[in-house]
Each structure stands twice: as C-alpha cells, then as structure tokens.
Amino acid sequence: MIRVTIDGRETCVPRGATVLDAAGKLGIPIPTLCHLEGCRAGTSCMVCVVRVEGLKRLVPSCAFPVREGMVVYSAVPDVEQARRAAVELLLSEHVGDCEGPCQRACPASLNIPLMLRQIAAGQLDEALVTVKRDIALPAILGRICPAPCERVCRRGKVDQPVSICLAKRLAGDSGLMKAEPWSPASDSGKSVAIVGAGPAGLSAAYYLRARGHACTVFDEQAGAGGALRRDVPEAVLPRAVLEAEIGSIQNMGVVFNLGVRVEGPVAWEALRRQYDAVILAVGPVTADEAILLGVQAGARGLQVEPGTYMTSQTGVFAIGAALRPLRMAVRACADGKEAAFACDQFLRGGQARGGGRPFNSVIGQLTETELQGFMQGAGPGPRREPRKGRAGGLEPDEAAEEARRCLHCDCRKEETCRLRKVAETLAVQAGRFAEGGRTPVIWNRQHPDILYESGKCIQCGLCVRLTEQHGEALGLGFVNRGFAMRVEAPFGADLSTALTHTVDTVVSACPTGALSWRA
Amino acid sequence: MGTEEISIAEVDALIAAIGRDERSLIPILQAIQEKYRYLPQAALRRIPEVTSIRPTAVMGVATFYDYFRLTPAGRHQICVCHGTACHVKGSERIQEAVERHLKLAPGQDTDADGEFTVKRVACVGCCTLAPVVVTGSTTYGHLTPNTVAGMFEDFRALGEDAGAGGATPLGEEELIPEIRVGIGSCCIAKGSQKVREAFVTALNEWGIRARVRPVGCVGMCHETPLVEIVWPDGARQTRVMPSALAGGLVNPAASTLYRKVTPQDADRIVREHFRPRGAGKRLRSSVRSVLDRLLTMPGGDGLEKAALDARDGQVCAFLGRQVRLATEFCGHLDPLDIDTYTGHDGFKALHSVLTGAGAEATIAMMKSAGLRGRGGAGFPVGEKWAVTRGNVDPVKYVICNGDEGDPGAFMDRMILESYPYRVLEGLAIAAYCVGAREGFLYIRAEYPLAVKRLREAIARMEAKGLLGENVMGSGWPLKLSIKEGAGAFVCGEETALIASIEGRRGMPRLRPPYPAEQGLWGHPTSVNNVETLAVVPWIVRHGAAAHAALGTAHSKGTKVFALTGKVRRGGLIEVPMGTTLREIVEEIGGGVEEGCRFKAVQIGGPSGGCVPAALGDLSVDYESLSHAGAIMGSGGLVVLDDHDCMVDMARYFLRFTQEQSCGQCTFCRIGTRRMLGILDRLCEGTAVPADLDKLKELGKEVSQGSLCALGQTAPNPVLSSLRHFENEYRAHLEGRCPAGVCKALIRYTVTDRCIGCTRCAQVCPVEAIEARPFEKQVIDADKCTRCGLCRKACPSHAIKVESRGGVQPLTTGRDAPSTIRGTV
Questions:
Q1: Which domain, by its residues, includes A449?
Q2: ipTM of the complex model
C-alpha cells in the first residue's frame, strides 16, 4: 500500500492506483469528463488536473500514478483556475443549446420541448407533470400568457412558431379534472404565511405546500386570484378555470384566509411570530407601506436579495409586483416558485441560497443550412389554429400534431450532461474564449435510435476507446489531428453499422450530448 | 478526380512485402502513397481485410500524418518551405506567388492540369538558402515572388534527368591531392553535385592525379558550394594536430577553400592549382604563394566567388570560436566512407566499451562527463541509461530520435547526413550500455538524404561485422533499423515517437511511466537525440573529464546550433556551452546586415523564446536560457533585426505548434487555437486591450495544463516576447506595426521622389501598380501584397512603407542574391 496526502488528508491505496483513485477513497470530489471506470485513461479533457508537490506542471489525476509519500493539492486556486479554463476552452468549441431558446425565454423556465414531446406522444399526464414542475397555474397562463417562448421559437424562422402556449393550456386543462400530480411531501412541521393571493402568491403557496410546509394565504379580497380576477376579462379567462386551478391548490391543503387585510404593525408582528416564514406577494408597494413592514425598499418596490427573494428581514420574502412593476403573470409565477425554493432551504435550517439559473450553453444565430438540419425530423405544415377557435384551445389530436412541429432545440442530455454539470460546479464563464467563427451544428441521423451531433463532441475519445475495448468490428475512431480532430466511423461507414452491440455503452458514456438517444 | 484505378493485387503485394501487424501500418501507407502519390480509398479499405489492423487505425493514422493525402496529387510536388528562416525572408509571398502562378483557387492545392500539387512544409532544413522551394529532388533557394515563374520554367526544362548525378568512384587511398566538395543538403541545393562532376571532368581532361572527395557539411552554409583543395602533407598535418578540439580546423598552410563555386569554375581552379600533365611538374610553390592571399575569381554571372583562407578574418571568426565534438573532423570525412571514418578514430569508442570499459563504467562516464540530452529538455544521459539498464525486463530498446522538426533547425539533418557512422556508433554504445539488442533510428521523412545515407551506413557496418549477430566479435548482437517519420512534429516527443514506431497515431502519453521504465511495446527504452549520440564516442575516447572541462557548471560540453535568419554568416556551428549570444551572433555570424539593428534571437524554435539583444551577454546554457524565458531546445538560433515584428514572430510559431498539436488534450488542442486567434487579431489590428491579459492568462494555463512538452512549451514564444517586447504588442493594439511587417497594418505608398520610370509596375507580381510613364505611380492598396519588390526595384527610393505612427526606416540597396538551384 502507498501513502498519499491530498489536500492535507492522508490515505493508503494499492500500488498502481491513480491520484483520482486516492481522491475517491478520501471522498474528495475531482471533476472528470473523459474518465470512465474500467476504461483506459484518455488524458484528454484535463478537467481533473491536480498539483503534485515537486512538479512544475499540473497533472491529470485520472492517469497519474501514486508514489509513496506523494503530496497532492486539489482544492487550491491555481488548480481550480486551470480546471475552469479547461472547461471554458471545451465550451468555446462546443456547439449546442442545453435548453431550447423557448425554455430560456420562459420566465418560469418551463421545459417546453419535453412537454411538446409528451403531448406529441399523447402522454398528457406526463406533460402535466412536466408543466407543473415549473408553472403552478398552467390552465390560467395558457389563456393569458403573452408567450415570450413563441417569439424566440426557431420554427418561426421557417414558417410560424409552435403554438406552445395553447399546448401548455391543454396540459393544464387536463389537470383541472385530475388529482394533483405534485402531491405534498410529508409534513415538514413548518408554516408559512403568504400575503396576497395573486399569481405570485398562489405559485409560492403551491410549491411550498408541495414541499410539505403548512401554507396560509391571506388576501384582502374575498376571492383569490388578485390581478387575475380583477383585471382579466371573463372572455379571456373564464372564472370557472380560475376557480378550478385555485381549487386544485386548495385541494393540496393550502389554507386560504380571504377578506382579511394584514394591517398595522401589531398584525404584522403577530404574523411574523405565528409563522416560520412570510412571503409578501402583495402587489405594488408604496414607500410608506414598506416602512410599515420594516423592510428596505427602493424606487421600484421592495428590495430583496437576488436569487433568494429574501428581504432585509430574515425569513421574510417578497415576490411579484411588490418588487417591481410586472407585465407578465408568468414572471409572477416564476417569482413564487423561486422564492418557495429559497424559503424551503431557509425553513430546513439552512441558508437560503436559491436555485439560480442552471448553466446554459447557447448556440446563437443559426445558418440557413443549420436551420434546415433542425427541421429534419420535425413535423411539416404551418401552425394550427384550433378548430374551436383560439378561445376554445387545442384538442388533444390537434395539440399532438402541433407539438410535432417542434424542432427539439434542447439537448437530449440536458439533465445528464457531465460537461454542463462540471461547468456549473466550477462556475465557468461560458463565453470567455468564444470566437467569431464557431463549429457548425451537424446532425448524424444514420442510426435509427441515436443522434450524433459532432458539434457537441469534446474529443474525449471515450467512444473510441470503448468501441475498441468491446470489439466493435468498425467502431468509432479519431481522424485528423489537432483542432481539426473529429470522431468518425471509418471509411465513411454508416453509424448504424459502425455501432452494433456498443450503442448503449457509448451513449451513456458520452459525457456530452454528442451521442444521445433520439427522443 | 475520383475514379480510383488501382489494383488490389498490387496493394496486396505491397502489404505482403511489409507485414500484417500494427507496426507495419505506417510503412504500408508510405508504400501505397509512393505508388499512387496519394492513398486511394480502395487501398485503405483493403488493409484491414488482409491484416490484423483495425479500420479505425487505418483512417486514424492516414489522417494524422502530414505526409499522407487522401486525394489525388499532381505529378510533381511543390513544397514551399515555411521554416523560421524562410518566414522572416518572406515565404508567405513566395507561397502566394506559387499559387498565383498555378492559378489555384483558395483552398485548392493542385492545379487544373494535375501537374503540380503545392504543399506548405514546416522546414526542409536549408535555412541558409531561405526562402526555399523544393520540387522533387531539386531545391530552389533565395527566391522572390518574381523569380517563381522562372523556377517553374527551369523545373520543366530539367525534365526527368533531374538529380541523376551518380557517385564518383573513389581511387585507392594514396597520397594525392584532394579536392573536397561539400555534399550536405545546403551544398547540394546550391549545385555541389554538378560542381563535383565538373571537377572530375576537369581532372580527367587535364590528366591530373587528384581525388575528388565528397565531404559532409562544413557548416559554412552561407558560402556553399564549398570546395577545398588539400595537399596530402597538409591533410596529414591536420590529422595529427595535438589538440583533439582543433581537429576540425582547416590547416591554413595546407589547404585552400573556395566558396560559392559553380561548375564553370572547376576548370579554372584545377588549372590554378595543378599543372596539366605534360606541361611540367606541379606548380606547387607558386600555388602556395597564391594560397596565402585571398583570391578573387571574377564570376561570369555576377556571383561573388573567392577563395577563402582560414587565416582570413571572416573564416577565423566563423571557425575560431567553434569547438567540434559532434561535428569532429568536419570537412574531412566522406559521409559514407567507412575507412576514412575508421581512420579518424571511428569505432574506437565502441571497441573500447565492448572490450574494456563495459556498460556500467561507460554509464558512469556519461554521468561524470555531465552529458545532457541535446534534444531540448537536457535530461542527464547517464541517468536515463542507468534506469533503462536497471529494469528487470530482459527486452530493452534504444531509439535515436531524428525527428528534428523545429522550423529553423537543421543540426540533426546535418549530423545524420555528414556523420552517419558516428551516430550509429553512439547508438550502438547506448544499446550496449542499457542492454538492448535492437534499436531504431526514427528519421523525418523530409530528410531523404539522411535516410539514404544511414541505410547505406548500416549495411556497410553490418558487412564489416560492426553491427549484426556478433558486434566486433564480442558475441553481443545488435540490430539497428530505420523508421521513417510521416510528417508530424509532435513525434519528436518521445512517447509520441514510440507510438509512431508502433504504428499508431503520434499521440504522446502521460509520463510517468517514462520510456526508460516502459517504452516501445511496453519494454524499457532509452530515447536519445541525434546530437547527443554523436557526442558519446568523443566522450568515450577523450574521457569524461575532457567533456566536463567544457561548458558551465551545469551545462557541459558543446551545443550545435543552426544559425540562421538576419545574420551575415549563417550555418551550422558547434560552440562550448556558456558562449554568449553576442559572441555567436556578432563574432561567428558576423552580425546583421549593414544598416540593420540586431534586435533579438529566437532560440529553441516553437518551444523556445525570444531573447532581446539587450540580453546579448546571456550565456548559452540550459539554466540561463530557461531563466530568460527561452529554452536550449534542439538548437535553432534565428537572428532577428529591426525589420522583424515580434508579434508576427510569436504568431508564426504559435501557428506552427497549433497546426502540429496532436489534439489529445484540451489545453493544447483548443488553448493554442484561442491564443492564435488573439494573435491574429493583433496582427490585423482588431484586438482589444483585454486581449493582452487574456493572452497572458491563457499562455500560463496552456503551459501549466498541457499533457506533453509540445503544449507545455507552445506559449513560450508568445510569453517571452510579451515579456521583452510588450510595447510592440501595445502598438498593435493601436493599429501600428513598428517593424512594418503586419500586412493589415502597413501600406506601401509612392512619394514625390518618383521619377515615373515604371520599374515598380514592371516588377509588381500582382499588378497593383499600373504603369504610368513619367507620372507619379500609384499603388492599389487592395491588390498590394506588401511583398516589397517595388521598393527594391525603385531607383529613386520613392516607395515607402507606412504604418500609423511610422515604421523604422528600412534599409535600401540590399539586393537579393540570385535564385539558386541544386539537385539531390
């Protein structure tokens, strides 16, 4: 056994072990991309570099053998900086959108392509789960949302954007008659007062309740809904829909205390004492009102910590129009969801940190050829107007047809991509090394089950090593050298003949979305 | 181009003759390419069908090395050299002129008739002839955009008989005068083969008994072709000179050295020195008196020719500071004449190791001699051998690394061409010391002459029992073979070199384990550079102390440099470690041209750095150079003057390494590319101030994080020039190029001194000047390629180079030497 010290902690590993093995034994996390247990080292990504005492350069821990008495540093600034630089360099030639433009444009960050795939497959229940993960009031928003997602939809560059909002409405409407998909988690024993039953407050209540907290919604109006009830005409948002969607929140166990105005310092103090946290979703707040509440305010509204929505008072959060003038209900809903997340962290005894927006790789402008590439595999035809008229919404069959028009701009490995995870963990600047002429977006659809997007490939060589290791007759190999290096099937072979029994292996090993299952 | 008319049977035959395992792949591909001038798909597909080589390996290897091409090539290959020396002397303009001449569209490399394929090559090692183009076996040097058309004409006129000149039979070893003709690549490029034939003809014609002896490179490449007349007594005298260190010196009393000799001069030189038979006895005494002075021979074609006396100041300075170990007996040895080599103490070292000293003592000797690797990193040779020897694995290998790829370096080429036996002797000693029975010489494909001579040398040594089953009767067997590279700079890195010998893509791997522990096919392998091995026999013969007496505290012995660039006397030099840069540039090299200012030395090629003239007193040794941000490297030493832009130089080197990156690790594959992007923006005047910081940060990250030495040292030219010449970088941020080099930042304009002679319009290769007799000429800035021909042609100095804020005054009246040509 060999003694190694990493970041001041000592362990013993067998001869022949690598620094990465030793770190694993100590539970010290070292990010990797081109490494896979059971596969020979690739020493390609260099994201796993460490500093070894006595050496001038950094070394890749995945392949560097341990020596007796070796002293290694992993959590030191220059190592972290190098890892960050490696990922930033990889991202500078990585062409792909983690999330589709629609999802990035959606204030609530709804995973629209996934929802559309589910709708296209007739899986409305699954679509509802997807929708409600990010939007508490889909039936309502499906009628009133100005749909910023549709404005950026790439299909719009070909003919018209996908009818996203109506598709979401269908999913939302399907939920009105069913049990709530996100039933509350076990009781946390904590309670939250939500002041204001507008879209922000309702959304916050929904997500806090879903996380097991006891929620009471206060509103001075007799009916919940705030601006939704007050400002939206019945013809646009039938009251029955409003009531039904609020009803489903009520059914989760959220208590509505309506027609009650929380007024004056005494009532406010009582509320603070009675509840573990308070969420202010009271709509526009004047400076005087802010003084009464005892929270700091600026010119536009209450001031909160970015990301967590916590005001200057610990445990008091503020969302929606209380912060700034709002034009979109979906923004208010998003506030509610995000504040609920931060509030949940706070209630569980931790620091409210918020979720933050995940790391996103972004393609930017597409060329005409690339757009044509995106169109492959998308359903034909122009945008469907509902048979029953816009107010009537899409029927399931119409919605499925419409959903097929989606170009699926999102990455199929959105959730599992190791590059994205590492980028997020290391807090990289995605555009640090961006250059004008980027790699083109190219799809290889030769294989019936998988997609190969060479622009997402980081040349880690895992697929090359694995197809060789598992005895693929053709397999994948590197061609060219240096910056021009690419992974290809030899002799221009079709991907479906190059990959036979190793498809599963290479798709799951690929650390990016370069090799992925087709939707 | 597309239909592939190839015979599978032919391919099968090639494969059958070479082998069917992975290690045969590169030779197979080389054979196929040799046959079809490219690699036809059908041939490539055939390989995995009849061998054990995987399809991915075939494609991976075929697309990794520069030598291979997958599309049909023209009947002739035009290689435009872009080595450092060629770059500073305008190779880009030559490239453009060649492409214009062949009417190539952008991205195209073969002309419409399929006659010529143009290739950019890193360095053909003829740096003193820069800028150089190699077509087939003919080398054209000192080209200008305007002489490119003439080059094509000449090449077509040469036809098929180019390079025919056969070996001249040598007479018995007897004491007759010798006419020694240099046959290094530089000499040959300048026509020494023809010169040699002319001397043979002249001697025959006059019936004079003298021997024409081909000799290896003398190092005075700036004076080639060199011809030396040596009298027998003089030669004797040279050979017994007391100090071994002086062995290479030309004995002034006994010989005459002619430089820049043409075939036409042969007859005249012969008549000057020898009395034709029947005309009485030799005119020896009168000749002697002639030898004592510098003899100028009026040349018919305007080329200056003169006999050089070693007592002449120039020659003394060039040779005087030099100490020859690796290049011992320089100018005395016919490269392939094994008897002369033996006569000059050849194989004595090997013999003494085999019969007396033994392996352990020899390793100890290398250690106490302080011999460090001459390939760049300077690792102690004795230690490397000891580790290899100490390994329990009974199978061990030695490799001679002759993949010299630095643009601007040709030391190894010259040593291999001129002293093949010495390198082989050194390799044999290494093999014996580490306990190997097999060794390889990995030689760049761009050095065909070296490959040819080494092959022949190995065969002759085997015939004499100096290699083979029973080396020198010691009972120890040694098999040496040659592996030709296929064009990948990274294969100079030892682990990549090993991968290449094994038949794979030249991808380096992480060290440790070092090759000395786990190398070729997993066995302990000692990889040593050409120059290192060439020094080994000297050390064995003269003892460790003699070697350790030379040099500095930590850098012992000598170092061979290829001195090129803006220096008057370029060539191959060998100096003791610790010699200062100024001594090399000023004394040996004769300084820069009249009117120019010595600005910096680029040392160590793409892995090295720029040392400013202000640090001219820097001692040339491993430690001092590394401290100044450069490295010893393999020995390229390019002198830069005030007309060289440091940003352009940095970009030049980075483009080189970037193109040569194997692509394995992120920092080198993408990092160097991003650095190059910033340098491109600087040279185009579109960079922003933040780019400089980014360049520095990225440079540090690439050098810290890259897997192998190529990536780790790639930022050196950038970081060192940023360190010493940051002002020049800042000028580029403002859109200025003070040296007047960066095309996008300068303009050629005509001043009022123009007399309307239209000479500029006549020489302009791109019609950027419309001839307007007796008027002031106008240069079309969009068409102008900034080649500078108009400036040189203008009799009234009316054309000036403008950059914002002005450029340093450019010297005038420097005529380019006429184009020269030679055939290997």
A1: 437-517
A2: 0.90
User: Is the CB of B510 less than 8 angstroms away from the CB of A64?
Assistant: yes
In a domain, A358, yes or no: no
SS (H, E, C) B320-331: HCCCCCCCCCCC
Q: Is the pLDDT of residue B272 over 50?
A: yes
> For B364-383, what is each residue's pLDDT tens digit?
999 999 999 988 778 999 99
A46:B58 CB<8 A: no
A262 in the same domain as A210: yes
Q: A367 exposed, middle or buried (CB, 10 Å; 0-12, 13-18, 19+)? A: exposed
Longest C-alpha distance within chain A, in Å?
Answer: 80
pLDDT band, very low/low/confident/very high, at B212 (cuts 50, 70, 90): confident
Q: What's the structural domain count of chain A?
A: 4
Q: Are B751 and B801 in contact (CB under 8 A)?
A: no
A184 inside domain: no
Q: Which of B512, B677, B707 sits opposite A65 (nearest CB)?
A: B512
Q: Determine how β-strand B571-576 pairs with β-strand B558-565.
A: antiparallel
Is A228 inside a domain boundary? yes
What would the pLDDT profile of B609-665 be if each residue is shown by its tens digit? 999 999 999 999 999 998 888 888 778 898 999 989 999 999 999 999 999 999 999
If one counts every other C-beta atom within 10 angstroms of the C-beta of residue A440, the result is: 13
Tell me B623's DSSP state: H
User: Are A292 and A375 part of one and the same domain?
Assistant: no
- Residue A167 main-chain phi, psi, to 5 deg: -65, -45
pTM for the whole structure: 0.87
Which chain A residue is nearest to residue B57, measuring alpha carbons? A477
Domains, chain B, ordered by start: 8-62 (no CATH), 76-161 (3.40.30.10), 178-320 (3.40.30.10), 341-548 (3.40.50.11540), 592-733 (1.20.1440.230), 745-803 (3.30.70.20)
A34: CATH: 3.10.20.740
Q: Assess whether A213 and A317 both reside in one domain.
A: yes
Those residues with Cβ within 8 angstroms of residue A222's Cβ, 6 or more apart along the chain or in another chain: A258, A259
CATH number of domain containing A451? 3.30.70
Distance CA B563, CA B409 (A): 8
CA distance, residue A42 to nearest chain B CA (Å): 8
Residue A357 located in a structural domain = no
Nearest by Cα to B57 from B642, B507, B452, B371? B507
**Could you tell me if A85 lies within 8 Å of chain B, comparing CB atoms?**
yes
Residues 460-479 of A with CB under 8 A from B: 461, 464, 467-468, 474-479
Nearest to B474 by CA among B366, B341, B350, B388: B350
Q: What is the DSSP letter of B353?
A: I
Q: Which two tokens stand for residue B368?
A: 């106490």
Among B612, B545, B531, smallest CA distance to B574 is for B531
Same domain, A323 and A247: yes
Handedness of CA B86, B92, B93, B94 (dihedral sign): positive
Q: Are residues A307 and A216 in the same domain?
A: yes
Residue B126 identity (one-letter amino acid): C
Check: CB of residue B581 under 8 Å from CB of residue B589.
Answer: no
Whether residue A328 is found in the same domain as residue A391? no
* Same domain assignment for residues A61 and A110: no
Pairing status of strand B295-297 against strand B305-308: antiparallel
**Chain-centre distance for alpha carbon A153:** 18
Judge whether B132 and B140 are in contact, CB under 8 Å.
yes
pLDDT tens digit sequence for A352-400: 888 778 899 999 889 999 999 999 889 999 999 999 988 899 999 999 9
Q: What is the DSSP string of A244-278?
A: HHHHHHHHTTPEEEES----HHHHHHHHHHHSSEE
DSSP reduced 3-state for A355 = coil
Alpha-carbon span A487 to B60, nearest angstrom: 10
